[in-house]
Amino acid sequence: MKKIVLALLATSVLAVAAPALAHDYDGGDWNPPSYDAFWPQYQQICDGITHGQRDGSYTPEQAGSFYRALQHIRYRAMWEKDHGAYDGQDINARFDDLNQRMRIAHEQGHERLEYGGARTYGYRPYGDYDRRW
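-> structure tokens emitted (133 positions)
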């Protein structure tokens, strides 16, 4: 019984903390000094996009746009590394811009869902169409 209660408690803590962890970037402490330090930030933003897709706060178009922007940052960081000109401040500024856009879209998505928006993003089930002939 004790194990079940502890498992439920752990699950509830994770359920509350997971959304917060997906968007905990505060804009000031990310400055990957090297290309190797770039990957944790990249993965965290990628996880944030996945979180937004799963909870319905990002439309498929928004998620695709965020993934493309993240890939662009990755390609830029790779190019800078390959040319011996890796600039952590430049990459940080790009991460910051993307994360701010993601945060705004995430908040607006939750508002949309909270106030009656559907997860269908404009696609209505068959029964919802006006049947005027």
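DSSP finds four helices and no strands in the chain.
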